[in-house]
Amino acid sequence: MKRICVFAGSNTGNSPEYAQAAKLLGQELASREMELVYGGSRMGLMGLIADTVLAGGGKAIGVMPKGLFRGEMVHSGLTELREVDNMHQRKAAMSELADAFVALPGGLGTFEELFEVLSWSQLGIHQKPVGLLNVKQFYTPLSALISHAIGAGFARPSNMDLFLVEEHPAELVNGLQRFTRTEQQNKWGSA
């Protein structure tokens, strides 16, 4: 596993534990010589993880749509910045570059990116591991929502095997390295 794509908030949140988790994950990636792939911002948790990876001697590749985010400043110290035309190209480029995905706490953009890679895994478009860093139980409600969708007949029980949930960065990265995607049940029921 060479590169991990991290989805993260462009804000730091209202608890210092969120920033600390981003830094610990960045240290973990740098110490294992794993490259960071992310959205290219210097702001929020996104910027913190990039700064930490770079400070640890690691590589950080940012992918940013040209001119789209004037307030979300581009990180100027990246190993590599790839500019694309739009958000669809951004997500496609990050996915192509990555061997695995991690979601740190974040907002709607983080959720959207996470659900896209989970959907792609469910459909067999990729076989890459997906991990949720469950800082302060941030992703516990999301896991409960997916369980609820399973109980309501809109998702299959095997969908819970598409992602890992861990509270500590080292344990999450270890899990990603050991991950083997299980065969998914037929999405459309017993047909």
What attributes does this structure have?
Cytokinin riboside 5'-monophosphate phosphoribohydrolase, 6 helices, alpha/beta, LOG_fam, Rossmann fold, LOG, EC 3.2.2.n1, hydrolase
Question: What does this 3D model show about the protein?
Answer:
This protein has one domain (3-178): Rossmann fold (3-Layer(aba) Sandwich), CATH 3.40.50. The protein has 191 residues and is of the alpha/beta class. The model has no long low-confidence stretch (mean pLDDT 93). Helix 1 packs parallel to helix 2. Helix 2 links the parallel strand 2 (35-38) and strand 3. It has helices at 16-31, 44-55, 87-97, 108-123, 140-151, 169-178, and strands at 3-7, 35-38, 60-65, 80-84, 100-103, 130-133, 164-166. It is built from six helices and seven strands.
Largest sheet: 7 strands, parallel
Instruction: Give the uncertain stretches in residue-range form.
Output: none
How many extended strands?
A: 7
Distance between the termini: 36 Å
> Which fold name is given in CATH as the topology?
Rossmann fold
Within the largest sheet, what's the order of strands? 4-3-2-1-5-6-7
Form type? globular
The percentage helix is: 40-55%
Number of alpha- plus pi-helical segments: 6
The number of distinct structural domains comes to 1
| CATH architecture term | 3-Layer(aba) Sandwich
Structural Rg: 16 Å
